Amino acid sequence: MKAIGKYIFRQLVITTLIVTVSLTVIVSLFGSLRLIDFILNRGLPISVLFELIMYRVPGFLTTILPIAIVAAVLSVYNRLLNDSELVIMRASGFSQWSIAAPGIILALFTMAISFPLHLYLTPLMYSNFKAKQYIYRNAFSSILLQEQKFNTPSDKFTVYIRKREGQGELRGIFTHDARNPEKPVTYLAERGIATQTEQGIRVVMFNGSQQLIDRKNGRLTLFYFDQYSLDLGVFNQAKEARWMEPKERFIDSLLNPDNSINDQFYAKQLIAEGHRRITAPLYILAFVLIGLLALLVGDFNRRGQTVRILLAISFIALLQLSAISLFNLSQNTLALIPLTYALPIFSAFLAAFILFHEGKLQLRNKADNNKPNTSS
Predict the structure, then answer these.
(1) What is the DSSP code (8-state) at residue 237?
(2) What are residue 274's phi and psi, to 5 degrees?
(3) Which residue of 136, 191, 224, 311 shows the fewest CB atoms closer than 10 Å?
């Protein structure tokens, strides 16, 4: 790469990094709003919030990187045009390829980063995020720390805690246990102590009452106790294996669903998601070529390139919407999956053809206009 190419490439890289970091911080802040509510409701330390956000960053980058590189290409090349640097480059004999090469090389480099992001790092980190979220949501301390809220780990079990004091000390306990539909039980207690044992979660309640209804004869049994130990094994039942979402699966698991009921039911969605992961990085090159096409083809306008930039953004947005629509359709009709590959490849090829073919014609016309007139 020539010195001028390195100069353009350096400007593109700096701008891309600035936009990427800025957008990542903004998206992380907005994405953490729901996590903050999740953390506060469960009384978890603030370090858990940063841990969960870090798990989401690779997923954010898959969306941010294409935006960042397009913004860098449009801003850098537009500045070069406004400062007449591109005009000087062309007058000095630089070809269309020499001028466009830094943007294309950066696009290819970003694609090389995006493939492992889409295929490995994002599903790995998202899987860890969901696993951690699942653990914190169903953890003993997480559930019992939700004060003044009816906690329902299952539709047959409800726990209400008015206030928590100290480690495991509870005030104002209400528990309704309908796991035995024939004999639902309601417990009320002034205070209690919750502990985690090898057998599961257990609450020792003090100064309370037990109300038991026998559905067969409608009899209500009420007795008071000074101390009563209640087994909350229902909270441990939430630790059963969960079905992995498409976002947290690796490519082989997506393209080859297993024989489980859920996988077979969502087989088309899983396969479509797998192909989307493969094709998503290809759009980066198409986006960059559209941006270069808008700014490097055509006559220079001293009033600015606002119209061209807006057209480029419009075409890129249209291409992205087409990709999303095609992905949604392919989830129901797998026969459309080849089109998900054809769309970014054809778009990139068409933009590259126009960029370099029209660029050659443009340079040739200028050369012809600069020839001396030898006619008498």
Answers:
(1) G
(2) -60, -45
(3) 224
Instruction: Report the distance separating Cα 275 and Cα 342, nearest Å.
Output: 12
Q: Pick the range with the lowest mean pLDDT from 63-67, 126-130, 153-157.
A: 153-157
Coil/strand/helix, residue 306 = helix
**Is 274 within 8 Å of 118 (Cβ atoms)?**
no
Please measure the distance between the N-terminal and C-terminal CA atoms of the chain and give it in whole angstroms.
Answer: 45
Q: Of 162-166, 183-187, 316-320, which gets the smallest average pLDDT?
A: 162-166
DSSP-assigned letter for residue 117: I
Q: Are 251 and 119 in contact, with CB atoms under 8 Å apart?
A: yes
**Residue 257: other Cβ atoms inside 10 A:** 20
Q: How far apart are CA 142 and CA 333, in angstroms?
A: 42
Q: Could you tell me the maximum CA-CA distance found in the chain, to the nearest angstrom?
A: 122
Confirm if 86 and 305 have CB atoms less than 8 A apart.
Answer: no
- pLDDT number for residue 130: 85
Query: How long a stretch of residues is the chain?
Result: 376
- The Cα–Cα gap between 106 and 125 comes to 26
Residue 146: CB atoms within 10 A of its CB come to: 17
Q: Confidence class of residue 322 from pLDDT cuts 50, 70 and 90? A: very high
Average pLDDT, the chain: 83
Specify the 3-state DSSP secondary structure of 178: coil
Neighbouring CB atoms inside 10 A of 114's CB total 22
Distance CA 185, CA 176 (A): 6
Q: CA–CA separation, 334 vs 88, rounded Å?
A: 51
pLDDT in tens, 327-349: 999 999 999 999 999 999 999 99
pLDDT recorded at residue 374: 47
Q: On the CB side of 208, how many CA atoms lie within 13 Å of its CA?
A: 23
- Cα 234 from chain centroid? 32
The residue written with tokens 């599903």 in the block is 123
What are the angstrom distances between the C-alpha of 224 and each of 161, 188, 203, 229? 19, 9, 16, 13
DSSP letter, residue 332? T
Q: Which residue has the tokens 């796991």?
A: 179
**What is the residue type of 196?**
Q
Distance CA 285, CA 110 (A): 9
